[in-house]
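Summary for the steering committee. One of the milestones for this cycle was to obtain a three-dimensional model of the protein with MGD bound, which we needed before selecting residues for the alanine scan. The sequence and ligand used are listed below.
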Amino acid sequence: MSTEEWRPTACNLCYANCGVLVRLDESGRNIVKVRGDRAHPGSQGYTCNKAAQINYYQNGRDRLSSPLRRRPDGTFEAVSWETAIVEVAARLEGIRDTYGGDKLFYYGGGGQGNHLGGSYASSVGPVLQASYSSNALAQEKSGLAWLNGRMLRGSWHGDFDTCDVAIIIGKNPWQSNGMQRARIRMRDIGRDPARTLIVMDPRRTETAELADIHLAVKPGRDVWCIAAILGHLVQTERHAREWLAEHATGAERVLEQLGDVPVADYAAFAGIPLAQIEQAATAIAGTDRIAVTEDLGIEMAPNSTLCTYLNILLFLLPGAFAAPGGTHLVTGITGGYMVDGDGAEEVVDGYGVSWQKTPVTGARMIQGMMPCNSIPEEILTDHPNRFRGAIVESANPLHSLADTRRFEAALDALEFVVVIDVAMTETAQLADYVLPASSTFEKCEATFYPQEFPENFFHLRRRLIDPLPGTLPEAEIYARLMEALGVFEPGELDELARAAEAGYLVYAEAMTEALASPKIATHLNYVLYRTLGATLPDDAREAASLWANCHQLAATIPDHLRAAGHKGEGLALGIELFEKILASESGVVLLKGEPGDATQWRRPDGKVNLLVGEMSDELDRLAEYRMPERDDAFPMLLCAGERGSYTANTIIRDPGWMQSNNPDSLSVHPADAARLGLADAGSARLVTKRGEAVVQVEFNDRMQEGSISLPNGLGTVYPDAAGRPMRTGVHLNELTDLQDRDPWVGTPWHKHVRARLEPV
Ligand SMILES: Nc1nc2c(c(=O)[nH]1)N[C@H]1C(S)=C(S)[C@@H](COP(=O)(O)OP(=O)(O)OC[C@H]3O[C@@H](n4cnc5c(=O)[nH]c(N)nc54)[C@H](O)[C@@H]3O)O[C@H]1N2
Ligand SMILES: Nc1nc2c(c(=O)[nH]1)N[C@H]1C(S)=C(S)[C@@H](COP(=O)(O)OP(=O)(O)OC[C@H]3O[C@@H](n4cnc5c(=O)[nH]c(N)nc54)[C@H](O)[C@@H]3O)O[C@H]1N2
Ligand code: SF4
Ligand SMILES: [Mo]
């Protein structure tokens, strides 16, 4: 393998999944050079500093290279794949047959950039009758998904390239990206005198520094700030009345409520000067080219669901929805994204009256996912419906979910846990079996996240590096589990396999017929993998499940595919898309929409809906100025998990990748430090009601007084050069409490953790 060759792949460290070109060393196993790939339709050559560090992920010292089985004394022993698969399948069947498959849950399914592997889990779930699942989205985006389903029936994306007004709420794209080319987009809007960047963040972030209007709200009080802006807009009669009359239902009550908002009082409670409220209202009154985005700063804080509701109104009330340069519903490779399916919830008079519930506590499940904070409560009980086993894949919930000790007790209480991961994670340490996956770069992979409009893209990454010996791609792991579970008879899929060898059209026709069988339809991705996958190039085998996605898109939005240059109709169109995805090394433009086209109006009446009864009631209660109760023993607010230049969830575990920051650094405002007698770079004890940690104080005048902040993704245990386990940084969720969560959808308040600081 030439060290001169630049090969295309993507950075897997955040959901932008920027296209990169990499060079390997002579061994073919180390990624030694990384640069942005200009041919990538989304990132267009952009990367942040982190892309250069992906080899720390690829070649971590704690990569797993053999299936592991727990011995009675608690240690692990290596076992063969044959043994592991047979025994794991038997244990899972045992739980199903003893307690019922609904006592097994599945957690994970893909991190920031590996979603192909998890697509194959969908074939195994039905065999086990495992009906409950969850993943990290259910601890951040549930409120958003719930309201998207009720109001729009789709997930939205602001056009930050051509908007007049950009509104960024509780997000710092400068550090967290979370959209394509974030720094460029933020800088362009900030610099352009004709465009207005509005940033709502208590902290003076790098993004806030670029803003025309920085709404430095008091932590957790965003809802009063936005209600004041919307109140001012409505009270000065500058909302889009005609647009709402034509395109919206249920606007009356909210307009009436906003008409009554005591704007000055709400602004004062939020800590925002009235002049700024007026300035922001005027900015959104003057245009329908408004792009909005929100993230953890409000999704993991008190009032999060109401805040998301008001954020949606920020683009609906000025009529910026589906307008050129405004905010749009997106379609990606899986069709819709973050949409509650039809019938998931029945809505009467704006109230959701029925929803899927968790089996023990009856918590509301959004998009079929259990709220993460509920999981321990669904296990640590003697309720007959409690969970008994779990499959965890591409996730590290012991580290990432609130209240680690409760979660650890919950994992302990389960009879059986299997973890599928690339590294020896905190969660894997507690498993009964650990199955080693090939890394993102050792198989064909993709992200399902891209949310661009009007053009959206898809990037299939071919295998770049041979699988680490002893590892398997998830597609193969799930396929072997299927076979151990004996779902299909030997030879049962031979006809489809032969059709696959005869070419795509023959296969498509054979598959159309085969789908009449519920068994094939239920286990479709497995069938695709074992039949079509076997005919794909070796470095693209795991792409087989995309066949179904391509045909689904061809059947539902053929015009949008053709507008993006894909040709044909029916099966031919699906085949063309699949072939183009396989052939494109740097990604393809998947589809092209038009502002305002039919994909934007997904509710049955073709309108957007503003009446969400639960949120209307919450809006009324704003006048009570309720905030979570404060305890004088914990006078400060800890932001438990700030994104920075050297954080990437727990995808990179080797602390050696950090080139600048001190992982223990707690950002403290100098005035707070002076008051508490803390020195810059000195130590302090950080105490919450759930735990404590010794941290290093770092003066930071970007903070609001009374607020402190720690980086996310740290506190992992990693072997030092001599193989001894070493922990670096603070494990935040040893400090967080399961009960601090949103009352509607259960998302944790990690941005709002009551704490105190003591000198040591
Ligand atoms: N570098 C890096 N990038 C990442 C990740 C990573 O680990 N590292 N992780 C990725 C993931 S999984 C996610 S979900 C995203 C998250 O991306 P972001 O949400 O942008 O990340 P955070 O730094 O957690 O929080 C954003 C901001 O919320 C602000 N904030 C705190 N409290 C409040 C409040 O009460 N109101 C408001 N309005 N703001 C508040 C903080 O000051 C902070 O600037 O990042 C992704 N990108
Ligand atoms: N206190 C606090 N807690 C938080 C947050 C916070 O801000 N504060 N942020 C939260 C957020 S927004 C998120 S998204 C979560 C993220 O938390 P998790 O969803 O638990 O996931 P990650 O830390 O991203 O880790 C992904 C896992 O996938 C593994 N992995 C990587 N590549 C592959 C692969 O190809 N195959 C397999 N099988 N495994 C692979 C990695 O080794 C790692 O164990 O953390 C949340 N937890
Ligand atoms: S961390 Fe995110 S923004 Fe940075 S290069 Fe990787 S994918 Fe792109
Ligand atoms: Mo996240």
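Key point for the committee: The first helix runs from residue 54 to 58.
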